[in-house]
Design brief:
6 helices, alpha+beta, Beta-Lactamase, single chain, 29% strand, 5-stranded antiparallel sheet
């Protein structure tokens, strides 16, 4: 495969991007807009939740936050996010111990190759205040 102008291969670019996303100070969830299935999350989210990345990928959004408890609520919210072009929300995420962490963040819907994804970028409220 050909190198890009900066000398990197596409695989190296993907690895670099993943490494940077995982080291971000904020969280990142990629979520199925219909089912609420968590498709991916960065290391920060996994650290906050207390689960390994593979465990988080087996979860739904209903398993780890307190605002949405059922798919119909989630789907109504996703429609709002689409209509408004993104929203800012406050929520609490539920950890493996059952405790909750207050977060705020931005939620958007992105389409890649005809498939929609919900992109959630939470920040711990305590991090903002510290």
């Amino acid at each position: 495969m050909a190198d890009s102008p900066d000398g990197n291969t596409p695989e190296r670019d993907d690895d670099l991007f993943r490494s940077l996303v995982d080291r971000a100070a904020v969280g990142l969830f990629i979520i199925d807009p219909e089912t609420g299935q968590i498709l991916d999350a960065n290391d920060r989210v996994c650290e906050w939740l207390g689960y390994a990345k593979e465990e988080v990928r087996d979860m739904t959004i209903f398993d780890c936050q307190t605002t949405f408890s059922r798919p119909p609520e989630w789907q109504t919210f996703v429609r709002r996010v689409r209509d408004e072009g993104g929203v800012e929300i406050e929520n609490e995420i539920r950890t493996d111990t059952g405790s909750t962490l207050p977060v705020e963040g931005s939620i958007s819907v992105a389409s890649v190759d005809g498939t929609e994804y919900v992109v959630a970028i939470p920040r711990r409220v305590a991090d903002r205040d510290g």
